[in-house]
Structure formats: structure tokens, C-alpha cells
Amino acid sequence: MTTSPTPPSTTAPASSAAALAATTAKAGKRPAVRTWSDLRSETATRRSAIPEGLWLRCPGCSQMIYRRQMEANLHCCPECQHHYRLSASERVKQLTDPNTFEPMWQGLRPTDPLKFRDLKPYPERLAAEAVKSGVNEGCLAGTGFIKGRPVMLACLDLSFMLGSMGSVVGEIITRAIEHATAENLPLVIVSCSGGARMQESGLSLMQMAKTSAALARYDEAGGLFISVLTDPTTGGVTASFAMLGDIIFAEPKALIGFAGPRVIQQTIRQELPDGFQRSEYLLTAGIVDRVVARPQLRTEIARVIDYAGK
């Protein structure tokens, strides 16, 4: 009697697939089929390997630039030389000779005599700004050396309430001017501000007259005041000490004015010229003496001090 051949088993392929999967798992290899969850986790892993903020897009030329290269270039874009905004401490570090700056009047703190409240009470806003910026007020002043020349230096800090001028900022600027007068030092003030601080109302506006009067006494004593305007310099700061320099330097394309261009355009109902309220426009109008790029600023300040015999 003949025996019919055994039909092929239908479970063999399944057993082979299971064996292949087991072998793949034992070998530590990922299965051929991946889910969306697997893909998302892999993408997240790849992204986390790149530190946040390592690259940034320049607002001037729209190129992607390496942050460390920008910082090494004095916070200027290596492609188009767009000047990024700086904190007061970074500005001092760039301008003064290493380990020569001695800060002064760092213990001054604003009060709230008007009990002012907008979205939050003024003391709470000050505390929040201090935490965010790491400083207690919008101005840093002290003595130092710029290329070997002793100076009195004051820098407004845009990171603290947009560098707005309140009672403490006005007091620090005034003390810096008076110290420069007493010690016969050249005075350098770097301005970057949104104007007078509205939370202090009339007390803030009084700082315009106070700083201007101190500068008048400094001028009578034969002092040299170099004013450096950076982006932005507006409001009460522009209307007082920022425009009273014996020499006025400005960084390229800095916004400089009292009211903003939008407010002016809505008021006069006319189209404003290209580059209105920018450094280059003010240079042609005779309001700014020179537009100086950040890498050359130290040299230009030292040259003016030597020329004036200070």
C-alpha cells in the first residue's frame, strides 16, 4: 500500500517568523516594523543631543549663525554685523580693561512712595525684574580704565525694566557725574533705555532736570563727557543727559529718538523717510557726531580722551 505525501504545513511560516523575531530580539536589533511612538521617541532623542540656543537666526540678515561665534564677535552678527543688545555688565566687560572696573553705589534700591499699581504692585514688579535680569536696578556705574585711560563709566541696563530711568537710575547717573567732576575724570555714559519709568511718575521725570544740572556743573569744571547711544535710546533719557555729550557716538542702526516713529507718523499723518530715527539718519542731521561699530568703540573713546588732553 502506498502512502500519500504529507501536505506542507501551514504553520511553518508563522513559526519561522516567530523564530526570526526572537532571534532579532536576542541580538538586540530593532524589529523591522516601527510604530509612530518609536519614531517620535527617536526624534526627541536626536533633538535633545543638540543644546538649546546653540544656533540662532540673525534678525538683520536672516542667516543662521553660531551663538558662540556671535558672542566672540562682541555680540555682533559675523555675516552682517547686526549689533545685538547687551546687558550693562557685558557692556562694561567689553569697554574696560580686564579687572579694572570698580562698581559703585550698588546698594541703592527704589521705593514705592506713590503706591503705584498697574497689572501688579510696583514692589512685586521690581522683585520679578530682579529675578529675571539678575540685577537690582537699571544702571551700573563705577571707575575703570579704557585702554589705560582712567574713566568714570555708567551703563544703563536694558534687561531691567527696559533700562527705564527711575529715581535710583537718575541718582546713580548724577553721582557718577559728580564723582567725575570731583576727581577730574572723563565721563562715559552708555545709554539704552525705553525712557522715564512710568511707575514713578513725576519723580522719574525729575531725574531729567537733576542729571542735566549735574552735567552743567561738570561742563563748567572743564570735564569731558562722551555719550554713547545704543539701541534703543528713547524717551526721557534722550531728552536729558544722552544728548548733552561733548562727543556723541552711536552704534550702527540704533533707534534713537524721543517718541517712537509710529507715534510721530500717526501725529503728523505723513510718511517718514527711510531710516528715520536711526543712527545713520541722525548723523546726516548733525545730531550724532560719529557712528561707531562696537569693535572700534574702545579705540574711538581712547582717541577722544587723548585729543581732549584728559
Total beta-strand segments? 9
Number of helical runs? Answer: 11
Assign the CATH architecture of the largest domain. Alpha-Beta Complex
Mean pLDDT: 88
- β-strand amount: 15-25%
Strand order of the largest sheet: 3-4-5-6-7-8-9
What's the CATH class label of the largest domain? Alpha Beta
Short description:
With 310 residues, this protein is of the alpha/beta class.
What can you see in these coordinates?
The chain has 310 residues and is of the alpha/beta class. It folds into two domains: 48-84, no CATH class; 85-307, 2-enoyl-CoA Hydratase, Chain A, domain 1. 40% of the residues lie in helices and 15% in strands. It is built from eleven helices and nine strands. It has helices at 12-26, 36-48, 67-72, 88-95, 122-133, 167-183, 201-220, 235-238, 261-268, 279-284, 294-307; strands spanning 55-57, 64-66, 102-104, 139-146, 149-156, 187-193, 225-233, 247-250, 290-291. The strands form two sheets. Strands 3-4-5-6-7-8-9 form a seven-stranded mixed β-sheet, with helices on both faces. The longest helix is centred in the last third of the chain and has 20 residues, at 201-220.
